Amino acid sequence: MSSIQKSEADVVLIGAGIMSATLGVLLKELKPNLKIEVIERLDSTAAESSDAMNNAGTGHSAFCELNYTPERADGTIDATKAINIVEQFEVSRQFWTYLLNKNVLKNPQSFIHTVPHMSFVWGKNNVNFLRKRYEELQKYPLFHGMEFSDNPEKIKEWAPLLMEKRELKENYAATYMPLGTDMNFGDLTRQMFQHLEETDGVNVTFNTHVKDITRNGKKWQVSSVDRKTGSKSEVSADFVFVGAGGGAILLLQKADIPESKGFGGFPVGGEWLVCRNQEIVQKHLAKVYGLASVGSPPMSVPHLDTRFIDGKQCLLFGPYAGFSTKFLKKGSYWDLLKSLEFNNIGPMLGAGLRNMDLTRYLIGEVLQSNKSRHESLREYFPDAKDEDWTLEQAGQRVQVIKKDAKGRGILQFGTEVVAAGDGSIAALLGASPGASTATSIMVKLLSKCFKDEFESPEWQAKFKEMIPSFGMSLNEHPELVAQVRENCSKALKVYPHNK
Fold this sequence. Notes:
Belongs to the MQO family. This protein is of the alpha+beta class. It has helices spanning 18-30, 80-101, 124-137, 152-158, 160-163, 185-197, 248-255, 278-281, 335-339, 342-354, 356-367, 370-378, 438-449, 451-455, 457-466, 478-492; strands at 4-14, 36-39, 112-114, 117-122, 147-149, 172-177, 181-183, 202-205, 208-216, 219-226, 232-242, 264-275, 287-289, 303-309, 312-322, 390-393, 397-403, 409-412, 415-419, 425-430. It has a single domain (4-492), classed as FAD/NAD(P)-binding domain, CATH 3.50.50. The chain is built from 16 helices and 20 strands. Strands 4, 5, 6, 12, 13, 14, 15, 16, 17 and 18 form a 10-stranded mixed beta sheet that branches. Helix 2 (80-101) crosses helix 16 (478-492). The model has no long low-confidence stretch (mean pLDDT 89).
């Protein structure tokens, strides 16, 4: 019988993506003497949801994502979610600026680029919606600088590919935000982990699969196995964070905390049409988001994106969704079945019945032909040629299913921190806008799991140093918005794009 290698740590981070990277760096800034153990199932950092091709990349800031500004029954626009998301993205930018100034991050051009954010619609009703959205967002300092036009020539000036060889019988409108960015969260994550691996008290282990998480007195015991050698290990820690992307729900269930009961997950795969023909790529510098088709879920929102991947500019269109029982791109087809428990079967079935539009949408996407995909592309780029685009696999995302106040299952389109009552273990469930709001999410997690230290004068002062707007609403302080954005733009080398 092989021996089990045992060790101790203050903190265990499961998963080497953007969330664990952000939390690890925050903790080391707040409490440098902490001993941190990072356990990653694959052979490198940022290999799942944080990877540039695996969905993450917009730099979600609610400038162009129309599903963040729903229309109320009375016809007015609800900007609440959009304001919240752009506030959180600004928090992330401030933290990255702090890390650049400390030389933790060394190359901003590898992970952030100026790319204007656009919304683009057609049809009289959609044009009216976009105009109302623009007028509502102009009330808030965080959206100042956004432009609106229903003039095809102006839209063509912003994004030529949208209007080339388009019949102008329809009404068109677009908004243009020059402050938008493209994010490569894979490169950002790798830079953060490079710093962590060079920091005293941090150990990162790859190719290691976590088999179990159990309570051992006041501590947690994380049991794992080396996927190459089969050797087993156990690490005992005061605090465990499960940041394993879609796989987080399965690990959270192993911990068996009361707060995790009733949670389920619905996996959704993705694909992109990708263009690397530089003659075409160089004609388009924008992230253009449209409206989801009637009856389709928010995740189906189509977009034509300028992206910087592996140091090269390219265009992505999609995403096209598909159904898979895997919770991770490199996961198991048994993931969904393994996640079923007595306490979550009811909510999952209930959520499924109440979201038949999602079921129909996924069936349609799975059965979609290549011809149909290219027809969707030509709604945004009329002159697109099939031979310039290849279909490539994106990542897996797991939409959270949870109980509402009446015990019914509801599908959550967002991210959620699930923490034990004593704050000794926490997991992040869900998907978009995750990566872009990672700093805010991890600060919230620290407030739940390190309550006493979080409120201490030392931690409060450190937060203020790392995030100058900490404790304040940027949206309520226009002068602070301008100051923060100027400081971040200088450090990150991203400036509003002037057409």
